[in-house]
Design goal:
This protein has helices at 6-33, 47-62, 86-97, 100-105, 121-130, 146-156, 201-205, 213-225, 251-259, 279-287, 304-309, 316-329, 348-361, 388-411, and strands at 38-43, 66-67, 76-81, 110-115, 136-138, 160-162, 183-187, 189-190, 209-210, 230-234, 266-270, 294-296, 334-341, 365-370, 417-425, 433-437, 442-445, 455-463, 467-473. The protein is of the alpha/beta class and 475 residues long. The protein is globular and about 65 Å long.
Length: 475
């Protein structure tokens, strides 16, 4: 059993006090107007941000808000921001700028910003002075303070800028309003200790801290009992899970324990760091019942010199040792990666090494990015920034190579029966159903919208670099 933590229990009690005050106020509003207040959440960035927004929406419902899909109907707008690239920050600021007129129409409207971007002091100052209609701001370490900040904003009518929590609390017991009733995100840890020279994450999400395993096991068991079929474990570096926990488990131990839960479900995880991808973890995956045969293993560059400047703490030889062992133990594993093009000082020879690694590793898919300097990171101050035209030319060459490899990988699956979790009608072609294979490949097929959330047996008859097309076949 988990030991009692008086501090966290007091924080939960305090949070509930604010929840009840806001709920009472919202109930009065509904009685007086005949309409409940509504909350709208907009999320930029990664799956961790999506999971955070599901918690914010869960707290909003607990506080008496209905959830709306349109900002025009909202009395509370919360924008959850990303700081990984400049484009994501500018998009969030531009979107918030469009909400100014909504505040003029609805004086009761409260606008909040949270997440990674607003964990940077210079962005907080910018919002304070250039976006006076934003009512309160809170960073990633203050998620659990959402009811308190909203309550204080409504009662005191004063703009609030919440500093990060010194302890960077791992708050439990926060309600979650999940966007899907068959796919779920489960955060197992927060923060990062790696300090890759290009990355802002350790500065905006803090140091690594892990949830106790019993709380994670309990959450996953409840999800399986509720019919969830695809569960993804989240962390900035899931492979380093376990630091600071009483159990002393590592990520492989946690994965093995979760795999012992009975039910018809898949377990996925992201993101992994190659330096911490152990053989023990791969062995657990290979012997598991529920862990999907999918591994996201970010390479970032095929040049050892660039990897050193990135502070990645592995080289290409070590990376390939891990990849080869993974494919030896799990021959049908789908492997994806991240690649950064145009890192400071990247030469033609360095880039050629990245192309060579793609040929050697033969990834199913890559997530590729043109290097974007992030204020406050060492790489932003490095000499030899690569000219924009060279970065874009290399990016195009990278994509062309990967598109060929991805097509060859997918064509090898034509005619092979695969189990697919159906997501319902495709957004681009509602006449077709879409779904995900065990390896997380997209599959399109004719079917019934009622199949959403269920497994179907699928056989591909056509492939491109990014998806499979085929038919549903009898079980």
């Amino acid at each position: 059993m988990e030991e009692a933590n008086p501090t966290r229990a007091a924080e939960a009690d305090e949070r509930q006090t604010y929840v009840l005050r806001l709920r009472a106020d919202n109930d009065r509003h509904a009685m007086e107007t005949g309409r409940r207040r509504r909350a709208f959440f907009l999320t930029f960035g990664c799956q961790q941000n999506e999971a955070d927004s599901e918690k914010l929406a869960g707290m909003a419902q607990q506080m008496g808000y209905d959830i709306t899909r349109t900002p025009e109907d909202a009395d509370l707008i919360t924008v959850n921001t990303c700081a990984v690239r400049e484009h994501a920050e500018q998009k969030a600021l531009s979107t918030v700028g469009q909400y100014k007129h909504l505040k003029a129409k609805n004086p009761d409207l409260v606008i909040a910003m949270c997440g990674c971007m607003v964990s940077q002091p210079h962005r907080v100052e910018e919002i304070k002075h250039r976006y006076p209609y934003v009512d309160f701001v809170f960073g990633t370490g203050s998620l659990h303070r959402f009811p308190q900040l909203l309550c204080e904003r409504r009662e005191k009518n004063k703009r609030l800028y919440c500093p990060e929590e010194p302890s960077l609390t791992v708050a439990e017991g926060i309600p979650v309003r999940r966007e899907s009733d068959y796919r779920a995100w489960v955060s197992i840890m927060y923060g990062c200790n790696n300090f890759c020279s290009y990355c802002i994450v350790p500065y905006v999400r803090g140091r690594e801290r892990s949830r106790e395993p019993e709380r994670i096991i309990e959450e996953v068991r409840e999800l399986v009992a509720d019919g969830y079929r695809d569960i993804t474990l989240l962390g900035q570096n899931v492979n380093s899970y376990g630091k600071g926990t009483r159990a002393g488990w590592d990520f492989a131990d946690l994965l093995a324990a979760l795999d012992r839960i009975d039910g018809d479900f898949r377990l996925r995880f992201m993101t992994s760091h190659p330096k911490d991808a152990s053989r023990k973890l791969i062995d657990v995956m290979a012997s598991s019942r529920h862990v999907a045969h999918q591994f996201h293993l970010p390479l970032q560059s095929g040049s050892d010199a660039v990897l050193a400047r990135m502070n990645r703490r592995y080289d290409t030889a070590r990376y390939l040792e891990t990849l080869d062992y993974l494919r030896e133990k799990i021959p049908d594993v789908t492997v994806t990666t991240d690649i950064i093009v145009g890192f400071p000082g990247e030469t033609d020879e360095d880039f050629a090494g990245t192309l060579a690694m793609l040929e050697r590793a033969r990834y199913d898919m890559i997530f590729s990015f043109i290097y974007s300097p992030r204020k406050g990171t060492p790489a932003a101050e490095m000499a030899d920034q690569v000219p924009d035209e060279i970065r874009h030319a290399r990016f195009d060459r990278l994509l062309a190579l990967q598109n060929r490899i991805g097509l060859e990988k997918n064509q090898s699956l034509v005619g092979v029966p695969m189990r697919v979790l159906c997501d319902g009608p495709s957004k681009n072609n509602p006449a077709l159903m879409s779904g995900r294979t065990d390896g997380n490949k997209i599959a399109f097929f004719e079917g019934n919208p009622d199949d959403a959330g269920t497994y179907v047996l699928f056989r591909a008859n056509r492939a491109d670099a990014f998806a499979l097309w085929g038919e549903r076949i009898p079980e």
